[in-house]
């Protein structure tokens, strides 16, 4: 009995021990891990980070431009959307009035030679007689790009071209989406003689109310035939007055991009060469631009946002333009190297347009468009993702020779990895694109550790986590990208430039997922990937400090340290960035060597991007669910202990020397910029 009791006691005890061990083990899974980050902040150890490291890549994809940053409200303003080889398509214009009242078709009678299609409205009803028009008239309306955003008190410039066989009485109005409500309107009248030839009409409408889903109507109650062409409605209030949506470009400005690559991407290549972006068709007066069908992302663009406007946007953002041009290669057809010279000349002409003397052939067109000073074009990229294509290397050499000869200072970017310095493929930089899952992206923090430092530098012009890890813009994707970017920052002697892709998506036409900024006619938000980029907005031109992670029990954290002068308060900081990609918190000891005593202020700030669930996303209803959160960091010193939350990206900003930290009052705040 006794022994049996004893053995029972032992086994209960053993059970207790086992339970304890299991519990302990379980507890350890969720216990904090520890690590030490040693930073060398001595002046001698720092390495300069390129002035241009972090920038943006704008592609006309997802209606990023047409129906996006370009503020034009009318979609298909010239009725050309069918393209040159297909019957014209007036979509999304619609007819107001039944077939017995109005007959609408296109013809080729426009006064614009490069875009001959006009809209012919044969009005069969009248204000009197047998066939009376409805009181609101008959005509056409344009709903814009999924509704026009009209805001009370704002001014909208409406321009169109009109011709008429009879006296004209045309009402132009901004209404609700169903034609009801009058947000603003004006009536244009005149005799048949006044409008017998094409006449430009221009007026300013002031909105009486706000409606995010408005439409533009042109209606009449007078019998006769009217032609319309190049109908435009633009808000007057645009970014620096240059035609861009201020809210969307404002988000770009917050990233402090040092360059902007444009206009693609596949958009530059086209499925077929006939549909590729060709700069000459996108410059000059907007009314005369033919527009084109982008057959990769499958929508029409009027090319109001053309080559000139891209250069202007770069200037307005204080970012260097990086122009990507077609090299005679599309997704499905390509020009033989022996016949590529017209494309080479087109590229040379494009460079002359950007920076030639205002008296030169193409420089004078730029001057006529209002920019006599040259644009600061220093980089061009020959094609996009074309390295594997049969004619690319041959074509590339023709471009390289011609551009190097005419513009020796221009940096030329190849689609092929030229880091091996192969003689037949000279390049100043080479394009590197990566779209992958979260784990793989995070592991690429080391991708450039062993890259040759002798050859051309890498331009990581497109990167993003895609697939199920990304959702439509998850925290998980953003954290993996943050790890990758930390690796690029630390390897910025091999990587010259980096930009996320794609930049924008109009939520009504999601052609590629995920994206950095999501918008519709009036709303917008940044995905967590957008916010990650803000952590690096002070990195370009900063100094990289030597750093190493030691004694870490986790391989799920990466870190970097920089020192920089803030573009906001001009004070000097050390910024330590840490990505914790794992599920455990990490107790991190930070040891900063190489600093004079008392050279850090006692308090700094910490900014954390994290969320309850790693798949959390932002949305129109919760645009700030996953955004950086800043708080005061106390007890700053050369040796300090911090806790890095699981699944997070944190930056610690330490103010150097006698600078005063401007963080009084609120101890914690959600950030709209870092
Ligand atoms: O960023 C979306 C697309 O991905 C780009 O057009 C292309 O370059 C890449 O394949």
TrEMBL record:
SUPFAM superfamilies named in the record: (Trans)glycosidases, Galactose-binding domain-like, Glycosyl hydrolase domain
Signal peptide: 1-27
Cell compartments where the protein resides: Secreted, Extracellular space, Extracellular matrix
A single GO molecular function term of this UniProt record: alpha-L-arabinofuranosidase activity
Key words, A-Z: Extracellular matrix, Glycoprotein, Hydrolase, Secreted, Signal
Family: Belongs to the glycosyl hydrolase 51 family.
Protein name per Swiss-Prot or TrEMBL: non-reducing end alpha-L-arabinofuranosidase
């Amino acid at each position: 009995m006794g022994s049996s009791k004893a053995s029972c006691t032992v086994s209960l005890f053993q059970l207790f021990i086992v339970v304890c061990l299991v519990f302990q083990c379980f507890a350890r899974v969720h216990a904090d891990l520890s690590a030490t980050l040693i930073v060398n902040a001595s002046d001698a150890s720092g390495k300069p980070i390129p002035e241009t490291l972090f920038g943006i890549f704008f592609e006309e994809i997802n209606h990023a431009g047409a129906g996006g940053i370009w503020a034009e409200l009318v979609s298909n303003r010239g009725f050309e959307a069918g393209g040159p080889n297909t019957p014209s398509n007036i979509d999304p214009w619609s007819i107001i009035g039944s077939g017995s009242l109005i007959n609408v078709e296109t013809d080729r009678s426009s006064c614009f030679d490069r875009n001959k299609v006009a809209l012919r409205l044969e009005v069969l009803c009248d204000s009197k007689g047998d066939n009376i028009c409805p009181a609101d008239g008959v005509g056409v309306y344009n709903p814009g790009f999924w509704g026009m955003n009209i805001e009370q008190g704002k001014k909208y410039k409406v321009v169109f071209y009109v011709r008429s066989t009879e006296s004209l009485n045309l009402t132009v109005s901004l209404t609700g989406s169903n034609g009801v409500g009058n947000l603003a309107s004006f009536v244009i009248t005149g005799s048949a003689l006044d409008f017998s030839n094409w006449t430009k009409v221009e007026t300013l409408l002031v909105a009486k109310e706000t409606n995010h889903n408005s439409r533009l109507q042109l209606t009449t109650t007078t019998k006769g035939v009217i032609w319309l062409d190049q109908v435009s409605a633009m808000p007057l209030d645009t970014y620096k007055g240059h035609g861009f949506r201020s809210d969307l470009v404002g988000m770009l400005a917050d990233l402090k991009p040092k360059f902007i690559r444009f206009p693609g991407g596949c958009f530059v290549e086209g499925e077929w060469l006939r549909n590729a972006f060709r700069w000459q068709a996108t410059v000059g007066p907007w009314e005369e631009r033919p527009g084109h069908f982008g057959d990769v992302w499958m929508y029409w663009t009027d090319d109001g946002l053309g080559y000139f406007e891209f250069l202007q946007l770069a200037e307005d953002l204080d970012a260097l333009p990086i122009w990507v041009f077609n090299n005679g290669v599309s997704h499905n057809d390509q020009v033989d190297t022996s016949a590529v010279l017209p494309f080479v000349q087109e590229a040379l002409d494009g460079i002359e347009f950007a920076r030639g003397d205002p008296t030169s052939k193409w420089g004078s067109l730029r001057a006529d468009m209002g920019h006599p000073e040259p644009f600061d074009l220093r980089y061009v990229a020959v094609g996009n993702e074309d390295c594997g294509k049969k004619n690319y290397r041959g074509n590339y050499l023709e471009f390289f020779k011609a551009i190097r000869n005419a513009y020796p200072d221009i940096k030329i970017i190849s689609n092929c990895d030229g880091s091996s310095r192969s003689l037949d493929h000279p390049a100043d930089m080479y394009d590197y694109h990566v779209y992958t899952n979260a784990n793989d992206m995070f592991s690429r923090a080391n991708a450039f550790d062993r890259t040759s430092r002798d050859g051309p530098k890498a331009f990581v012009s497109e990167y993003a986590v895609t697939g199920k890890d990304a959702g439509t813009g998850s925290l998980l994707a953003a954290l993996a990208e943050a790890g990758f970017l930390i690796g690029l920052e630390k390897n910025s002697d091999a990587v010259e430039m980096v930009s996320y892709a794609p930049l924008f998506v109009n939520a009504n036409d999601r052609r590629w997922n995920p994206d950095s900024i999501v918008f519709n006619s009036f709303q917008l938000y940044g995905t967590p990937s957008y916010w990650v980029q803000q952590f690096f907005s002070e990195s370009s031109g900063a100094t990289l400090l030597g750093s190493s992670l030691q004694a870490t029990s986790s391989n799920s954290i990466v870190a970097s340290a920089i020192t920089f002068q803030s573009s906001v308060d001009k004070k000097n900081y050390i910024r330590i960035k840490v990505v914790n990609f794992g599920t455990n918190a990490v107790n991190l000891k930070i040891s900063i060597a190489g600093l004079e005593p008392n050279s850090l202020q006692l308090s700094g700030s910490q900014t954390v991007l994290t969320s309850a669930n790693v798949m959390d996303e932002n949305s129109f209803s919760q645009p700030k669910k996953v955004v950086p959160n800043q708080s005061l960091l106390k007890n700053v010193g050369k040796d300090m202990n911090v806790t890095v939350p699981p699944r997070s990206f944190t930056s610690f900003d330490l103010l150097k020397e006698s600078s005063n930290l401007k963080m009084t009052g609120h101890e914690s705040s959600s950030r709209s910029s870092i």
